[in-house]
Amino acid sequence: MRIDDGKGAKAFAALLDDPDIKDMFLMKYPVGERGLAPDVNFDPGRVRYAPLFEKIYGDCRTAGFMANAADVRWLPSKYGKTIKFTKINGAAAALQHVSDELDKLPQRLLAYLRPTQGTYNCRAIAGTNRYSAHRFGIAIDIAGAHAHYWAWSKPDANGRFPYKNEIPWEIVHIFEQHGFIWGGKWYHYDTMHFEYRPELVLTAD
Question: Second label for 125, Cα 20 to 30 Å away, from 37, 151, 152, 189?
């Protein structure tokens, strides 16, 4: 696959709808307690070159796709539900490590972790033709009751979406330590969303 499609600098909409591999790395994901509130259109990780992801994780529309799914025990002692996640690139193993560490957090944080809002979902992103990370089994949504999503908000007088979040840093830290990015660090925020993207997290400053 070509790294650079030769189309040069792209407008934000084109980055989302017609990216190349290089475009996925234009925005540096800010690991740790920084990056909030994100600058306008700063969405590290939302730019995904779908053919690459499909090559790595498979096409959810094909027979046998779920053969690469592994069971992850979510909060083994405090919830104990089994969820599916791709085992490719160690994603399911990483999520199990996340789950085991989250399971040790204080009781007051459980409201942000159960029930989960889903992992696999063979769909496009709502309102677009772009593939969701859930399509590849590399994303998990948590804390529906405490979730905030940019499209649920009204822009202010300047056309900007006001930032909202309730997810505690303790949870974000654990996910990031195991190669996940958090949708709460996007201008177009999706605070329930965590996505296995070690190529972004493990190369961050």
Answer: 37
Q: Which residues of the chain have pLDDT under 50?
A: none
Output the DSSP codes for 104-173: TS-GGGGGGTSS--BS----BPTTSSSBPGGGGT-EEE--GGG--BGGGSPP-TTSPPPP-----HHHHH
Domain ranges of the chain: 12-64+115-201
What six digits make up the tokens of 139?
């994303």
7 token code pair: 């189309």
pLDDT in tens, 90-128: 999 999 999 999 999 999 999 999 999 999 999 888 888
27-54 b/e (C-beta count within 10 Å ≥ 16 → b): bebbbeeebebbeeebbbbbbbbeeebb
Stated pTM of the model: 0.95
